[in-house]
Amino acid sequence: MYIDSHCHINFPELAARMPELLANMAENKVTHALCVSVDLPHFPQVLALAEQYPHIYASVGVHPDYADTPEPTLLQLVELSNHQKIVAIGETGLDYYRLEGDLEWQRERFRTHIRASRATRKPLIIHTRAASEDTIRIMREEGAGTDKGGVAGVMHCFTESLDVAQAALAMGFYISFSGIVTFKSAKDLQAVAREVPLERTLIETDSPYLAPVPLRGRMNEPGFVRHVAEYLATLKDVPLSQVAQQTTDNFFNLFNIER
């Protein structure tokens, strides 16, 4: 069985197809999915899905790309996470790829999420793009990770260098690979994936984006995550059953979910 550790099935293009989406998950042996929050106005939709479906879990957080959205406070994140189906804080992090100018607000938002993780003891879901140095620095300064008495988490949709992966692993974080790892152009990322221990690996779709080969170009969905697992099994030269079982175990362990 497989688990999609990061998806956005509350987005309208996927929510409108929910019965089909769930059927495709079952057909592809995807037993659970984590629907990840990107802002507070749409958080009720995320939570509603988790409340409606036993095999769907949720997070609470505000994406670093969202500049014009209500800013979360520490108290808000702590209070909103006080629900048995909310298993993580995020997604949070830094993204300097699209935004320019003074991005201190983004760094402060990231710090707030890390503090909420420490306060709630719920793991972080971290997004980083074109900002890895500051991401790791702030994680260390704020005590993210088990090495500083904080909580573990996941570097989601990982596309950074092996050095960044090793820094995150040293803090107790997991590394999650999306369909990007299957792309022909992703040679550097594939080299990183070979080095990341399977015991610290998660798989995800980040749907509706980044459909994996051989479905690239289609709208992504949780049922497609098995293609990421199949690719990693080939890349690491291990049985597919081992990738499926270990990434499943990792999901339950990281997010403290009882089976």
Strand order of the largest sheet: 1-2-3-4-5-6-7-8
The N- and C-terminal alpha carbons lie at a distance of 13 Å
The number of domains: 1
**Rg on CA atoms, Å:** 17 Å
- CATH superfamily placement: Metal-dependent hydrolases
What portion of the residues fall into strands of 2 or more residues? Answer: 15-25%
Number of helix segments? 10
- Which architecture name does CATH use? Alpha-Beta Barrel
Q: Report the strand count.
A: 8
> Would you state the CATH class?
Alpha Beta
Look up the CATH topology: TIM Barrel
Main sheet specs: 8 strands, parallel
The overall pLDDT average reads: 97
Runs in which pLDDT lies below 50 for 5 or more consecutive residues are none
Helix content: 40-55%
Binding site for a divalent metal cation 1: 6, 8, 91, 206
GO cellular component, one term: cytosol
GO molecular function: DNA nuclease activity; hydrolase activity, acting on ester bonds; metal ion binding
Family: Belongs to the metallo-dependent hydrolases superfamily. TatD-type hydrolase family.
Report what the structure shows.
- This protein has helices at residues 12-15, 18-27, 43-52, 74-80, 104-120, 132-142, 162-170, 187-195, 225-236, 240-254, and strands at residues 2-7, 30-35, 56-60, 86-95, 124-129, 153-155, 174-177, 201-203.
- The protein is an alpha/beta fold and 259 residues long.
- It has an eight-stranded parallel sheet.
- Helix 4 packs across helix 5 and helix 5 (104-120) packs across helix 6.
- The longest helix is centred in the middle third of the chain and has 17 residues, at 104-120.
- The radius of gyration is 17 Å and the shape is globular.
- The two termini are 13 Å apart.
- Keywords: Hydrolase, Metal-binding.
- GO terms for molecular function: DNA nuclease activity; hydrolase activity, acting on ester bonds; metal ion binding.
- This is DNAase.
